[in-house]
């Protein structure tokens, strides 16, 4: 693909590459299992603690999401070059271009909010009311109106997610500003809709369908108390491991689309000591 003066070159990958991204990510996890799981655990503990701050906590974590994403990208970048992921990578995004990463986080925040508000004409405001309510999620979800609202919000959020998908990587590896990173990410996602579609289907299958089936089977054969313990010992660790694989695959997919000539070797990028 030819690149203009402000273009970042990328390629169109075939559909099966979506499966390859997850397989390669799983291999990277196998090679550094303890390090990756510790890194993800540290992130979720931090998110839990910050999230305890009323209103400001969840908002701050969403705005800072691209910053922490750079940390995971740095960990994968380091592993490909013979190093090991570590908890210290979690803060590497704060050493990168915050002037571009924070606007991407704000874009995510505002885009998500608008996607939720866009559901109002479709569900009469049921989803917004449910989000503002203290009603437990498992009681609200069966409501057909809320389900319609969630579906509408997901559809409206897709362009936001697509624009932000590769944006942190483009900032740290390609020295893009926020607007250029968002525009390039959106273009790359639309061009690679086939592998990303396959990727999304596999993620939904392994990350949602299989765990739901497992939980249903456990609930069907065990009493409630024993079922909760069984789920905590089996399904929860499985989901955490799968989330780790999915997190690593963000880097694998970025590299495969924007640096395909490197294969599984090093990515040609700026000095990792300064940007990554």
Record the SSE blueprint:
Elements: H1 17-31, H2 33-51, H3 56-63, H4 65-80, H5 98-117, H6 120-123, H7 126-132, H8 137-140, H9 144-165, H10 167-174, H11 178-191, H12 193-221, H13 224-233, H14 235-258
Question: Could you describe the 3D structure shown?
Answer:
The structure is a single chain. The chain has 276 residues and is mainly alpha-helical. The chain contains 14 helices and no strands. The chain has helices at 17-31, 33-51, 56-63, 65-80, 98-117, 120-123, 126-132, 137-140, 144-165, 167-174, 178-191, 193-221, 224-233, 235-258. The model is unreliable at 1-5 and 264-275 (pLDDT under 50). It has one domain (17-262).
Key terms for this structure?
single chain, 276 residues, mainly alpha, 14 helices
Summary of the model, kept short:
The chain has 276 residues and is mostly helical. It is built from 14 helices and no strands.
């Amino acid at each position: 693909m030819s690149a203009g003066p402000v273009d970042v070159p990328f390629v169109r990958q075939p559909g099966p590459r979506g499966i390859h991204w997850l397989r390669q990510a799983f291999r990277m996890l196998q090679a550094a299992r303890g390090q990756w799981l510790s890194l993800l655990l540290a992130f979720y503990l931090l998110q839990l603690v910050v999230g305890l701050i009323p209103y400001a906590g969840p908002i701050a974590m969403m705005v800072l999401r691209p910053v922490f994403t750079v940390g995971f990208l740095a960990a994968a970048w380091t592993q490909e070059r013979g190093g090991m992921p570590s908890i210290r990578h979690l803060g590497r995004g704060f050493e990168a271009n915050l002037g571009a990463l924070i606007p991407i986080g704000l874009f995510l925040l505002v885009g998500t909010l608008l996607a939720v508000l866009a559901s109002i004409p479709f569900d009469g405001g049921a989803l917004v009311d449910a989000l503002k309510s203290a009603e437990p999620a498992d009681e609200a979800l069966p409501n057909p109106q809320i389900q319609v609202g969630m579906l509408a919000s997901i559809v409206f959020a897709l362009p936001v997610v697509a624009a932000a998908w590769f944006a942190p990587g483009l900032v740290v590896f390609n020295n893009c500003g926020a607007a250029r990173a968002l525009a390039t990410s959106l273009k790359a996602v639309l061009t690679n809709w086939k592998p990303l579609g396959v990727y999304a289907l596999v993620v939904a299958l392994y990350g949602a369908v299989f765990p739901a089936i497992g939980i249903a089977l456990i609930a069907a054969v065990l009493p409630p108390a024993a079922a909760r313990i069984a789920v905590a010992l089996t399904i929860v660790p499985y989901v955490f491991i799968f989330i780790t694989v999915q997190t690593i695959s963000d880097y694998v997919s970025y590299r495969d689309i924007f640096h395909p000539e490197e294969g599984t070797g090093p990515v040609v990028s700026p000095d990792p000591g300064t940007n990554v």
